[in-house]
Amino acid sequence: MVYAAVLAGGSGLRMGGSLPKQFLEVAGKPIIIRSIQAFIESGSVDKIFVAVSADFYDYTSELIAKHLGDSSVTVVVGGKNRNETLLNVLHSIDDISDDDIILTHDAVRPFIDKRIIDENISAAREYGACNTVVPAVDTILRSSDGKFIESVPVRSEIFHAQTPQSFGVKKLLSLYENLSDDEMEIFTDSCSVFLAAGERVFLVTGDRNNIKLTYPEDMERAENIIRCKEAE
Fold this sequence. Notes:
- There is one protein chain.
- 36% of the residues lie in helices and 21% in strands.
- By secondary structure, it is of the alpha/beta class.
- A hairpin with a 2-residue loop joins strand 2 (25-26) and strand 3 (29-30).
């Protein structure tokens, strides 16, 4: 089985407004619905979990019923951080098999495409773990105090992480269930958990349009991406 976990538990405060950013509309459709729809339309995913805060459980269920009405989508209550939220999703999977794969994805990246999804599935099956990335185009500077440059990493070795991050379900669940409470707070994503356990994480090439909608100005870019896709 191939699962997708669309993680939508964030508050989205940087976007402003009364709703978390994943529920805002872009080109007449909620961002979260566009993200879910991408996995449905790929035809490569068997079941989709959408993890949201308890406050928006009913609201999300209603949105899905209105726009998708798809039985392959299950809404799950998230936790207090990303790792706890993903663990709740993993505990919602019945009868985990050795070859099960899960793609974990930010709900506010609505421009994920079939090519990226399929390459994540293939890489997760072959290597056990992968992260979608794009090469850095800007020079990256390191400064621990935010005042003075300490080092300049070699740009050709630097990549910007996107999502999905994809894994074998059994291994991911095993690593998460062995994390301490402190580690659940410290690790910012699942790839960090794999790396800390000495596991390799393969790189899948992402797309410049696979943007994370974070700030108000990102909405204008999203509208432009949609217009370009509709014109093709």
